[in-house]
Amino acid sequence: MTIETQEGPRTRTPRRSDGMAAVGASPTPPRAQHVPAGPHLGLGTKVQRCTVCEEVFTSPKSGDKHRVIAGHYDLIRINGKLVRVGRESGEPVVPDGGVLVSQGNQIRRCLTPDEMRARGLVLNGQGRWSTPGGEWQPRLEVTP
């Protein structure tokens, strides 16, 4: 079917009332439904949600501040299976028949709310963690 538009003639796929293509027409999926966004955050804001602890932060800087290194591990392949081996320090210990795949990987964890407060993060009125005084940090210029 050809319809006339302001830009010129255009071919249109015939559709049934339920949005699916009519018999004999090229199969096209129905349009995706629009999902409304959450509450308006304002221009220039970049909110981050941690997928581990589900806490919400006002910026990536404050989100990164709540993740800490809890230890290290090595990844070893033994009989076709990958095994994590915890390591305190020094060289990795590989058992007989094992192959070292990667070493010095970080085990990370989220801080608790009390630990976040101790690090200087505050919970604002919207339930988001932020650093006090805003996120913007001035760049220090060195003048001779």
Tell me what you see in this structure.
The protein is mainly β. The protein is built from two helices and nine strands, in the order ββββαβββαββ. It has helices at 60-65, 113-118, and strands at 2-5, 8-11, 48-49, 56-57, 67-78, 81-87, 98-110, 122-123, 129-130. A three-stranded antiparallel beta sheet has the order 6-5-7.
Strands side by side in the biggest sheet: 6-5-7
H and E order? EEEEHEEEHEE
Low-confidence stretches: 27-43
* Biggest β-sheet description: 3 strands, antiparallel
**What's the N-to-C terminus distance?**
73 Å
> Considering DSSP H and I runs of 4 or more, what fraction of the residues is helical?
under 10%
Whole-number radius of gyration? 27 Å
Structural class: mainly beta
Strand proportion: 25-35%
Please state the oligomeric state of the protein chains shown. Answer: single chain
Number-wise, the strands total 9
The gross shape turns out to be extended
Discrete helix count: 2
Average pLDDT taken over every residue: 74
How would you summarize what this structure contains?
This protein has two helices and nine strands; from the N terminus they run E-E-E-E-H-E-E-E-H-E-E. It has helices at residues 60-65, 113-118; strands at residues 2-5, 8-11, 48-49, 56-57, 67-78, 81-87, 98-110, 122-123, 129-130. The longest helix has 6 residues, at 60-65.
